[in-house]
Amino acid sequence: MALEDIPRLGCGRSIDRIWATIARPPTAHEEHCEQCQTARTRLQRLGEATRSLRESDLHDPALKPRPGIENAIMDVARAEVRRGSSILLRSADNGTTEISEQALSSLIRVAAAAIPGVYSRRCRIDIRSATASLAGEDHPSGTTGTDANDGPRLIVNLWVAAAQGIVIPRTMEALRQEISNALPAGVGIGAGTVNITVEDLYDV
User: Fold this and answer.
1) Most confidently modeled of 25-29, 124-128, 175-179, 189-193?
2) All CATH 3.30.70.1350 domain ranges in the chain, comma separated
3) Does residue 134 contact residue 147 with C-beta atoms inside 8 Å?
């Protein structure tokens, strides 16, 4: 199965696809997806700024853009949109430590890629303080989780596709352990809860 390395939001939508249809009305998915709405807003602002700059440059030869400026702008736009919201890891008198949700998602996807027979799809991450009560915390239907009580707790929700023929419970437990090991090693904070949902099967 060939997998494409295309910049995507956490919901799975391609940033390039949103940009290509930015002049059209939002789709039914985009109307209800917060991540797509945020991406569209940022890209619309980028488009307006680019048009304004282009109009200004038309009347000033000295400001003629260099070749490749559009590609450079799009590279920055993709990086900014993908970065998404920041998650506060620690706060101290001398400042705070934050990490983007996109960076955490990338770390989780790398961990998932290490498990044969698993293809990661969407990923959503939340954080709770260590003092937050764990009582009454529910896991989504069809998911399981693990908890850790030291420090801030990341709540990882990962949707995956699994290869046909694998033992899903055992493989998902291996994936959960891989994520639980990767997060402390990568960013110094544990995954308090890892919810994994197998939403599809694919042929190897």
Assistant:
1) 175-179
2) 86-202
3) yes
Report the run of H or E that residue 154 belongs to, with start and end. Answer: strand 153-163
55-84 in b/e form (b: 16+ CB < 10 A) is: eeeeeeeeeeeeeeeeeebbeebbeebbeb
Count of CB atoms situated within 10 Å of the CB of 85: 13
Give the list of residues 6+ apart from residue 2 with CB closer than 8 angstroms, or none. none
pLDDT attached to residue 141: 41
| 29 pLDDT more than 80 | yes
Exposure of 173 in the CB half-sphere (CA atoms within 13 A): 3
DSSP 174: H
CATH of domain 86-202: 3.30.70.1350
Alpha carbon 105 to its chain's center? 5
DSSP H or E stretch at residue 45: helix 34-58
Closest listed residue to residue 111, CA positions, set 168, 165, 191, 169: 191
Residue 62 carries which side chain, given as an amino acid letter? A
Length of the chain: 204
Calpha distance 49→54 (Å, rounded) = 9
DSSP one-letter string for 79-120: HHHHH--EEEEEEETTEEEEEEHHHHHHHHHHHHHTSTTEEE
Residue 137 has pLDDT above 70, yes or no: no
